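Recap quiz, item 2
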Amino acid sequence: VDPSDGKILPLILCGGSGERLWPLSRDDRPKQFLQLTGERTMLKLALERVSDRTQFAPPMIIANGKHQSELEAQLKEAGADAAGLILEPAVRNTAPAIALAALAVRAETTLLVMPSDHVIEDPDAFLAAVDAALPALKDNYLVTFGISPNAPETGYGYIKCGAALSEGVFRVERFVEKPNLETAAGYLTEGSYVWNAGIFLFRAGDFMAALAEHAPEVAAASRDSLVNATRDGSVIRPDAEAFARSPSVSVDYAVMEKHAKVAVVPMDVGWSDIGSWDALYDHVTPGPDRNVCAGDGIQIDTKGCLIRSEGPLIATIGVTDLIILATKDSVLIAQRGSSQRVKEVVAALKKRAE
Amino acid sequence: VDPSDGKILPLILCGGSGERLWPLSRDDRPKQFLQLTGERTMLKLALERVSDRTQFAPPMIIANGKHQSELEAQLKEAGADAAGLILEPAVRNTAPAIALAALAVRAETTLLVMPSDHVIEDPDAFLAAVDAALPALKDNYLVTFGISPNAPETGYGYIKCGAALSEGVFRVERFVEKPNLETAAGYLTEGSYVWNAGIFLFRAGDFMAALAEHAPEVAAASRDSLVNATRDGSVIRPDAEAFARSPSVSVDYAVMEKHAKVAVVPMDVGWSDIGSWDALYDHVTPGPDRNVCAGDGIQIDTKGCLIRSEGPLIATIGVTDLIILATKDSVLIAQRGSSQRVKEVVAALKKRAE
């Protein structure tokens, strides 16, 4: 089967379990299903980004089986057509997930691999970057998109751009792990480093060839799993036993960092992975008194706060630079700048539940 | 009827509507019904203070009719016997309320009038102060109890102690309104000023005589209201129409500040009216990291906070000196020192509801 009809086939990775936005994100409703930056959920924003059917085929979506109903509900709400829905039988990181999709289409299909839980404020600039990347595919390159950094972030991996291959496309000189602040500041000054955003463009066959070369166990397990998949209309349930044999490994580690023909297209598109409540505050434009508010609230002498309720009224008096989230069963209050430590709360809750 | 049997008859004022401890205190469950300082509610602590039946008769309680069921439930839980329950048909401040009780007993009955929503950490010292006050009643004095100040509080009225009448009992030189900080600091240094805590001891007849002299409309309205009351066992429902004719006025303003024979007994008894969340924090002994916590919570790098939940989990990260309260429907986050402004939240909510 190849639903691409010669167009670019978007592959939306929807399997994240995101705990960093607790208490809003939960196991049963991770970040991609949340409405964080405006009226639409992160998933709906991703679908909309590739909704021009003259350029893109209906997307394939790969997700965790337990999110099927939420996913289908959001697709319906968005009025989105999907070419296929692959429900992963286990969590095995991005390399096996992408392999399942790459194997489900013809080798010459062009796949645009995108996380479902990032925001891109300038979709036109993103589409221009995709256009710029296309020529490199003729030379069998695997292309990654890099975000032009605007701050010395220590939470992302970086990619050093090498020699130019074509207008806006560079050979990847090297991938670098999350740097410390000093190193990150150096990258920012140096100018040829971009953030690794986990967005890729390649032909399915080129990807599978690279995977077979650099991570043959992943390729084999994914192939076996897909061959023995159960299909129900456009829903594909890969074989669990075979899939479980795959190493759990990221596409960066399995393929991109090792392959000879990897290119990068730097782009400045208003990207954020909204990886924490601090990141959300920094990404959106605050209102009066630098507050970012959603839900029922009363603010008295309140400044620089992110306040968001999914139910209870939140009243604040005389507070500054706080992150405040409330759901029906939980409340988070964190000083701005400390929201990375939400994972400690989630860990404590898991320990409790044991 | 006189249920006092020659003993002191406690009169517990339970009509407060306390909004200053929102979101825990509400119209239907004001401060006196809340468990703020330990395992017992403020009302139960007040009942316990006068539970020695060799000295005190079973108390009379005066409350707002809408709190009858909550009140009766707490009396039952406390295993407390009450001589009578007067349900006010309207809110008319303390002078008419006390008059209803004073008229319901014999003129020679000694009444100990106490708010139901204060805490007294040293009940023995309080009982000693009551003992000290008794001789003044023989000379028909109305006695008020004054709290020895430990800080230049601007939220209380003060009483200046005059000449000694007997051991520990002084003639009241004057009542003074809530002072500014400078004046309050002067009072503290001067040493003869005490806080007006709204606790009184007098014979019912002496009080009614003073009321008739200084506030005859209050005395008349209360008398008419009680004469036409409906009685159901020990529950007295004064006539609403007559009671409504009474001016709404405090016992201080109506009687104490005007009467010639008013005495004061200073006492150092660990008193607090818990008039705000800040006052509660200041009154209790904090735990590790100066936090005062109750209910479900996870604290990470959290210092000097009052955190209390009636349901939701409250997780805090990297915050200092906050007051955090959560109920099923509301969350309050206030910087410590700003909790007096809770009334602005309550006012905003009332405006909304209009």
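The radius of gyration of chain A is 21 Å.
Chain A has eleven helices and 19 strands.
End of item.
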